[in-house]
Every structure is written in structure tokens, then in C-alpha cells.
Amino acid sequence: MSILSDVTDLAALTEALAGLPKADAGAEAAARDRQMSLTKPPGSLGRLEDLACFMAAWQGDARPRINHAQAVVFAGNHGVCAQGVNPYPQEVTVQMVANFEAGGAAINQLCRASGADLSVVALDLDRPTEDFTQGPAMSAAETLDALRRGAAVVDANAQVLVLGEMGIGNSTVAAALAHAAFGGAAADWVGRGTGSDAAGRARKAEVVARGVAKHAGALGFELLAALGGREQAALCGAVLEARARRIPVLLDGFICTAAVAPLFTLDPALLDHCLIGHVSAEPGHAKLLDAIGKAPILSLGMALGEGSGAALALGILRAALECHNGMATFAEAGVSDA
Ligand SMILES: Cc1cc2ncn([C@H]3O[C@H](COP(=O)(O)O)[C@@H](O)[C@H]3O)c2cc1C
Ligand SMILES: O=C(O)c1cccnc1
User: Fold this and answer.
1) Enzyme class, one word (predicted)?
2) Is the pTM of this model over 0.90?
């Protein structure tokens, strides 16, 4: 059942969140027992063991599988681009969507390499959100609509969901969401994005500080509407739908993690089924991961977005499950235990 099918407004959605499923502790414990019985010193596969147990907990199966990995890139445009915060022009968003559809972007190659089925959802690109320094970026109705569109694309049969985004200017949106959710100074959350120089970063920090001050105190879906964009809301919708269906999620870098920060402000446990594919070179990402208490799977100096780091981490997740399901136990292989 979709968590978004019956709700009529954001307050009702907030209330419905309490009914979302939790991790299956029994399946997780059984997976942990299996890890202890496999032909290796206990713990020697490090985080691969934890990843296998995490997948067991969310799939509710001691022998979790990835036969079908779904990847989705959500694209949106942002009114805050009027503040001169982005080096590239806004039309690059729609141009990159065409590139995704033609198979020419980095994410196309990375999904092929890791075996994920990619789809792209363009969210009203000809109608940017409002400039958040002037008012809320989105109305409550627009926010709910984008949440629904994010939820609707999730394939009930997917065994893992890889999420990415495309939206010129959205490194500024991400910094604003992170600053509003976790405090500090605006400059702590601002980075180069697609190549802003020192003056550009100072400009971004000033815009973020102004936007966050204008919407001070907003939390949850109100925060998402005030400072987010359609792709951020769609990412939240997809994360919630995946949770309702017990599908584990691989989030990409700084922009995807910041997109779901409004959910964290409602209840940190709403992100319990989410893994972080990689830590971005955007300096705010490490700080954000600290704030939400999650360790990235990879650290490769990347700062692209599109879901690129999440798609790469899918390869690690697949390897973790190959070991978990394919290795012999000490008893099966006749290897002496300690
Ligand atoms: C050609 C191109 C491809 C991209 N793919 C992802 N992004 C990334 O850069 C954007 C955020 O950076 P900023 O806030 O500086 O605009 C997002 O669209 C993000 O996905 C791209 C950006 C460009 C230019
Ligand atoms: O980490 C990210 O998500 C990111 C960083 C810079 C540009 N686009 C995306």
C-alpha cells in the first residue's frame, strides 16, 4: 500500500508516517548468524557483512537478493537561480534529461555497469519553483504533488532503489535544506557545486543565509516546501514509498542526502532503510552524514550527482550479497572452526 495514496494534505501525511514498517530484526539476526558460519574469520568482510545484514533486515529475508535494481533520476528547476548561484544556465537541466534519455550521461554508463534499470522523471522543468529568498519555493499542493510523483515511480518488485537528481542550482537548495535542518553557518554547507569560484561560493552562502532566515523554524514537509524543489520532494516521496514496501534505498551524494533532511527532522528513523552510496567532494556532505549518523559506502572524490555514487555503490552491495549467499559454511566445506 502506498503511504501517499490516501492522504489529502501534508499534515495527514506526517501523521501517516507512524505506520511505516520497521526493520525485520529476526531476518537480520538470522543473516548475522549465517555470516558467523561462513568460511572466514568473523568480521573479516567488514562492512560487506553489515550491508548483507541490512539488506536482510529490510527485505525481511535472511537470504536477501538483488534480481531487480531500480534507479531513478528526478529532475527539477529552481527559482533561486535568479540569485546568480549557478555557473551553468538553467536550460542544462532539460538538456541533461535528453542526454539521460539518449543514454549519453555518466549515470547511464554506471547503471549499465552495476545492473540497474534507469528511468528519468522530469518534474515541470518549464515551470521553476519560486525563489526561496522571496517566499516559499513551493505551495503545499505543489509539494504534495511532487511527493506523489516520486512515490508513484517506485516499482513494487524492485529489491533495491538507487536514487539520483538533476537540477541546475540545486547545490544551493541542498545547502539551504542542510543549514535549516542542522544549523551551523551557511558557509559550512556551501561548496563549488558545478564549479563556483570563491566569489560564487560567498554569493551562494549569502543567498542560503537569507533564505534560511526567511523561513526560520520550518521543519518537516513545511521545510521541504519552503526551501526544497520538486526533485527534492519527489526524492522524499520515493524514499517513503520504498519504506512502505520495505525496499532498501541507495542515496547518492550531497544533494540527495540534503533532499531527505526534512524527513530526518520529523523522525531520524524515517531514513533507517537508506544507505549512502558515497561521500561527495562537496564539503557539506561529510558534515551532513555526521549529522544524520550515516557512513558512506564509497569515497571516490566524486561530485556529480545524477545518482552516480549510488549506482557505483550498488556494485558493492551486489558483491556483499554474492558472498552472503554463495559462500560455504564451515560445516559445508569441512573447514575447522576456531
Ligand atoms: C553538464 C552537467 C551535468 C550534471 N549532472 C549532474 N549535475 C549536478 O550539478 C547540479 C548542481 O550544481 P549547481 O548548483 O552548481 O548547478 C545538479 O544538476 C547536479 O545533479 C550536473 C551539472 C552539469 C552542468
Ligand atoms: O554530491 C552531489 O550530490 C553533487 C555535488 C555537486 C554537484 N552535483 C551534485
Assistant:
1) transferase
2) yes
